[in-house]
Design goal:
Elements: E1 4-5, E2 14-20, H1 27-33, E3 41-46, E4 51-55, E5 58-62, H2 64-67, E6 70-73
Antiparallel strand pairs: 1-6, 2-3, 2-6, 3-4, 4-5
């Protein structure tokens, strides 16, 4: 079974971050700097033209490659 990533969430759905893939060089470091860390709750706010997600009171916008780097677990 493949791991779910942020792109698999439906709008408004919440999940917990499990891991960060290193499929694009430097991406995990950028995500960590934004506070995208395993164990945090994440919600998908928008999926087009960019993926917008919320962690706590902060919202971030990323492209599909970066969104695919965020491995999640739904409740």
């Amino acid at each position: 079974m493949n791991a779910l990533t942020l792109i698999d969430l439906k709008l408004g759905q919440e999940a917990h971050i499990v891991a960060l893939k290193n499929n694009v060089s430097g991406i995990p470091e950028k995500l960590i700097a934004m506070g995208v860390l395993p164990g945090k709750k994440i919600a998908l706010v928008k999926s087009f033209p960019a993926y917008v997600f919320q962690i706590g009171h902060s919202q971030f916008s990323v492209d599909k490659d970066i969104a695919h780097s965020i491995v999640i677990k739904t409740s």
